[in-house]
Amino acid sequence: MVSDEEYRSICNLLYKEARFADNAQYDDWESLLTDDMEYWVPINREDPNPATQLSLLYDNRSRVSTRIRMLKTGVRHAQVPPSPMTRLISNIEVESLNESEYKVCSAFMLGELQIQSTKDLHWWIGRTEHIFRRVDETLRIARKRVDLINSQEAVPSLAFLI
Amino acid sequence: MSVQNAIDYSTIVKDGIINSRVYKDEKIFEDEIRKIFHNGWSFVAHDSEIPNPGDYVRRSIGREPYLVIRNRDGEVNVISNKCTHRGTLLCQEERGNVRGAITCWYHGWVFGLNGDLKSVPYGAGSKDLDHKCLPKATVGVYKGFVFATLNPNPVDFMDYLGEGASLIDRAVESSPVGKIRLNAGWAKFLYKTNWKLQCENNIDGYHVNYVHASLARSIESRYNEAVLAGEDELKTTAVDWGNGHSELFLAAGFSSDLEWLGYSDKKPMKPFAKAYCDQLREAYGDNRASRIIHDGPPHALIFPNLFLAETNIVYYEVDQVGVTVQRHTPMLLEGVSDEMNTRIIRLCEAALGPSSFFLPDDGVITERQDLAFDGGPMEIDLRRGMGREDRNGMGVMESHVTDEVTNRAFWSRYKEVMVA
């Protein structure tokens, strides 16, 4: 069980992360991460093992930094300009893993305007599993796994922060 | 098609000048489906995807649904995935095993692994059952790469493949036992462009500085040679291997071993990478192994739809005139450590696919091309380097990496096929 206060601070972090990602506030988004953060979007829905299976992305912390640096160059064409986006987060379930970590499961719907070329409005839908860790009294994101309902189908550019 | 309505490809595809109508015209697209994908050879699968009898993967020839399936004798068949009764898709899953026979869930018709009709419920009332086997494509297999055509009398498979065979040789020799396997799963990237814009892009060595500027400004990679060097300093080349097959020979610009695996003077090899080099030396001897360790697998397009993308295998599915699906998977190697193959999977995620560091930028730039063509036809100029390309020691056309010799190779083959 987590206390109401813990639950509220976890929701605050979820919503803050969503806002930073939606608004292409790349530095602010990165500031929420732990030094060993892992960012993962699997493809295979039955056996997503990253050691043997291809993912859409499987970033260690250093690769996340590269991703952010690219987005900040202003010439990451796939996100120039950044996609106008809004994501709704719901069905939040929290499990306390140990003294400092929580597993946070949620569902999302993300509307993205593909403004860089086709101007299609695309819906990204799926579930997120976060690991939040308290580091020096601050709650940070240690892991983010995003399972898209259509990860095995043909998807358009996913160069933004999902 | 009547003579009046025939499309005159000689005016659309000229030497190095392409009318953009070729990317937008529905009639041309239908013509391509028939002449290139139905009558000619295209890549459909790798036999490592279906190791056991009854294993299948769903693939398309043009847009026709087919199954690539292994029969009881271990042979690879490519058979229609449409029931010959009323056309329902027989297999809906992307891959699986049919356990000895394929049963249609509409009326219970049962087909064997060679496409033969085995039984129908209440058969006495059915007509012409002798002619209801599943149509079979003609199949050619080279080192596990499965190609197919709906033409019962196609050009000889090895004649079509030509020097493409040596490109495949150079891909599979990355394995110390000469075998690859594609079982890490496929990613599918949706492009709102004509398929040919993707073929052009992946063998274009001229765009790196601009399309991939964000990556060059963010990390050091093996593509930096192209990004930082002046025109005369670039050592990499563009090669026309004939039959529409072409290559960007990136290895000419590599300054250290296993650069293609992400290693360099500044990033020394990990133990598994050193062990991999030792395995290659033991398997192939020092000379050949040194070349493989330095060069890595090729960056080459095999006409019309297979892209040997260094440590990845890519192919294109044509969907609509303006919609293309790129499928890609890491080229896993037999006879190497699990660590080595995991490294190849991570490279694949970095390079290809909708959230990689390269392809989303290629995607958006080519989508902008496709959108711009809506305004009306224009002449695309692919003449760069024309006149300075030369036949190399092997007798193939080779030129500066930024020269459009590779794109001209594609279009010259395209024209041959389309006017036939």
Fill in the keyword field for this structure.
heterodimer; A: 162 residues; Nuclear Transport Factor 2, Chain: A; six-stranded mixed β-sheet; 41% strand; globular; B: 420 residues; alpha+beta; Rieske Iron-sulfur Protein; Naphthalene 1,2-dioxygenase Alpha Subunit, Chain A, domain 1; 2 domains; nine-stranded antiparallel β-sheet; 30% helix
Mind explaining what this structure looks like?
The complex is a heterodimer of chains A (162) and B (420). With 162 residues, chain A is of the alpha+beta class. Chain A is 22% helix and 41% strand. Chain A has a 6-stranded mixed β-sheet with strand order 2-1-6-5-4-3. The model of chain A has no long low-confidence stretch (mean pLDDT 97). Chain B folds into 2 domains: 113 residues, Rieske [2Fe-2S] iron-sulphur domain (Rieske Iron-sulfur Protein); 257 residues, Naphthalene 1,2-dioxygenase Alpha Subunit, Chain A, domain 1 (Alpha-Beta Complex), CATH 3.90.380. Helices cover 30% and strands 25% of the residues of chain B. Chain B is built from 13 helices and 24 strands. The model of chain B has no long low-confidence stretch (mean pLDDT 94).
